């Protein structure tokens, strides 16, 4: 009587291929998230440095808010870069998987909104800077403030893209129980 074992029917090979496909997809998405988080870190640090290096701009509350928000985003992004690098290197999340996914998704959104609020508040001051509304700032300070605002918006864009990717990973986790997308061959139908 012939045996219908999974090895004979290729079941183990198909399962191994499916697991390998999921692992590769998760690795690619983790690599993209690492790059987005690294970009957010660089933009936030640069925006904070540009906002902090001119004392005239720091006399205005929106630029102090821009400095503080980008410094906070930079610290958060540094932690997330380390966590993403850990995930790329080890293939596992730093925290338990469900906790890491919810942490990333929620904090990416929260810090992203803080970054865009600070950049928007400082953008208003930077727009009126050269027209007598800048609190007596020099043209160099106005330019530096404008650059800090632009870098703040770029940091927000990186965080928004990371929030989109972490939201996708969370949706995959809620739908399949894994942070990587289900492979097309995993359907039972």
Regions with little confidence, pLDDT below 50 for 5+ residues: none
Largest sheet data: none
Alpha-carbon Rg, integer: 23 Å
Instruction: Label the structural class.
Output: mainly alpha
Helical content class: over 70%
Tell me the number of helical segments per DSSP (H or I, 4 or more residues long): 6
InterPro entries: CASP_dom (IPR006702)
Subunit structure: Homodimer and heterodimers.
Membrane topology: Multi-pass membrane protein
Domain Casparian strip membrane protein: 29-157
Describe the structure.
It is a single chain. The protein is mainly α. It has one domain. 79% of the residues lie in helices and 0% in strands. The chain is built from 6 helices and no strands. It has helices at 6-9, 11-52, 55-58, 61-90, 97-127, 139-176. Helix 4 (61-90) packs antiparallel against helix 5 and helix 5 packs antiparallel against helix 6. 36% of the residues are buried. The chain crosses the membrane at residues 29-53, 65-86, 147-171. It is a multi-pass membrane protein. It holds the Pfam family CASP_dom.
């Amino acid at each position: 009587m012939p045996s219908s074992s999974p090895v004979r029917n290729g079941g183990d090979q198909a399962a191994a291929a499916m697991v390998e496909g999921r692992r590769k997809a998760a690795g690619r998405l983790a690599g993209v998230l690492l790059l987005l988080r690294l970009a957010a870190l660089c933009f936030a640090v640069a925006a904070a440095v540009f906002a902090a290096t001119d004392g005239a701009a720091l006399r205005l509350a929106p630029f102090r808010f821009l400095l503080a928000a980008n410094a906070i985003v930079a610290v958060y992004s540094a932690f997330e870069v380390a966590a993403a690098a850990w995930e790329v290197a080890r293939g596992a999340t730093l925290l338990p998987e469900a906790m890491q996914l919810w942490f990333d998704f929620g904090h990416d959104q929260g810090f992203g909104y803080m970054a865009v609020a600070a950049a928007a508040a400082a953008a208003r001051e930077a727009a009126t800077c050269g027209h007598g509304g800048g609190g007596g700032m020099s043209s160099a300070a106005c330019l530096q403030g404008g650059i800090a605002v632009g870098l703040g918006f770029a940091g927000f864009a990186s965080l928004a893209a990371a929030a989109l990717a972490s939201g996708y990973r969370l949706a995959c986790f809620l739908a399949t129980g894994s942070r990587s997308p289900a492979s097309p061959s995993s359907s039972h139908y």
